[in-house]
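help with this:

***
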Amino acid sequence: MRVMVCVKQVIDVRAPLIVDRRTSAVTAPGTTPIMNRADLCALEAAMGLKEKRPSTEVTALSIGPANVDRVLRYCLARGVNDAWRIWDEGIPIDDPYRISQIISQAARISHCSLLLCGMKSEDSGSAILPALISERMGWPWVNRAVSLRLSENATGITALQRGERGGRLEISCDLPALLAFYPSLSGHQYVSSHRLRAAEKIPLQIHTLNQRGLQSQELMACPSPVKVVKVRQPKPRTKRTAIASHQLSGEELMWQMISGTRGKKDDDNLVRGEPEKLAECILNFLTEKGIFHPSKGSYKESNGGDSQRK
């Protein structure tokens, strides 16, 4: 079984970002690029398959200039069999439509039956690349995957998909297939510095578009339906400001200042006071809603004078 994992080197979005309004480029000066977290989850899933089935061959693929060799070296240190890097000067690295053409062609040449990638990259966050690859390959596609399991006869997979509000959905499909992994912060195996240094000596397979059966002229001649219109900094969220109201008491004004919320109306079901008063209000409310039905006799009458002693 052959598995291909797509990895990408991105800027560290945890650092302060600078947006160039003229070129729409986003940079993080003074930081070291890192591997996309979602791609790292896909890599761990591929290595999990390799540990269970040692005959599995895993190939790491990345598209970019020589500086992306860093993430491919990490993949080699993690235990992949091969590392491919595809690059030509004419490749639009920020165009997911054309990148999907390159990845699809590389997957066909590698004869892989399972293609793993991240559901989105942290630098662009478009999340449309897996769908484009699936459309070109004609393969089933499972998005937001968190884990996978290979069938006994190795002809299908069962993926665990992350649903809304933390739910999980189990999806089974036949191979070949594409899985796009959800970025997770746990479950990654530690790679020692010794293995990282050893991976520096392993040669990488560097290919051009011509070697992968593509021409840069043909790639650029096909118009891309995806276009980035504008990139800008997110608008700051203003904190709610409490507005004083003459209809509120001093206690309510103080509560409004502490919580930073608006003043409460007179008809709001919010009661403050002593415990005895609050208990009486709760019982009255439950009685009005028909939830609580008081008996004919009171608690004191049914229990004599014990309630007073208690």
